[in-house]
Amino acid sequence: MKYFECAICHRQIFFYKSVCDHCLLPIGYVASEKELCTFKKQSPTEWIPVAKQYRHTSYKPCHNYTHYQVCNWMIPSSDEEDFCESCQLTHVIPNLENTENLIYWFRLEEAKRRFLYLALGMNMMPRPKYSENDPFGIRFDFILPEEDKPVLTGHSNGVITLNAIEADVVYRETTRVNMGENYRTLLGHFRHESGHYYFNVMQHLHPELLDEFRQYFGNEQQDYSQSLERHYNKGAPINWQENYISSYASAHPWEDWAETWAHYLHMMETLETAYYAGLRVQGNNRDLASMNFKECPIGGQDFEHILENWITLTFNLNALNRSMGLEDAYPFKLSESVKDKLRFIHRHVLEKVFK
Length: 355
What we know:
The chain has nine helices and twelve strands. By secondary structure, the chain is an alpha/beta fold. Pfam families: Peptidase_Mx (PF15887), Zn_ribbon_DZR_6 (PF10005).
């Protein structure tokens, strides 16, 4: 993620914040400008951007910003819509009569906005799903399980359902350990499930890409239910690391795509953060590779350079984590087969489908 600064005090402000920690002015994200802005309040529905010129002279906070503090996005004051581009995508939320559910909702929306930040940057911002037959819209249902009513996180025809209990850190970590996963986050859920949505978009817009897709990921027409049952009963192939980014990716080509897609998004935003932070690694020409940036990774043309930077960055991130006694920040290895899948995503889907 790029760095944002307050227009008044010029201190860094973070994407999730609603007030500048230093000068205490309100801040909010304007999606159309891709900017986190500092404001002065003229009235509850008229906030004036400070020190910068934008397409609109005044903005109002999203309804969920004003009433629940689970959002920090802004809308033009003249807009009849009360919800921002992010909150319009949320269709179902947990029952707020339970105050703990407000915390879960806050965490889910925070992760969703981070996913959408990258979608905006890569020109693939989804729009709301207007009807059941709408192939290009998306909606999010955040549902808490009830007794005898389990909730499975997943995607179906543009509807992404997230088990809201995943916002409970203890539950999520317990599930991660019990399932033998080395990585499980709310942001990871959004990025993985969005992969299924974007695959559907790709199918509708560019079906001619399916033949090449199958060269890398396999034939997605094989029975999905049977593939999952086989995976859960027998597990991943012994040598799955040679061809897949995770053991779950080996279950079915759709899951391979979604897992690889999620890792592509992880790669792009983390490298963008390193780019704006000015991070560099000076290699030793032996076993420590260098890292430098020729361009911002988002929209970058040299994907081989992006891959090299990613491998170097994650090696050093993991080394730093180990110095703190923590688990690896990126506990994955990219085989040549996985790199080819990432190249497919960068080469075709992002350059052809969403441009």
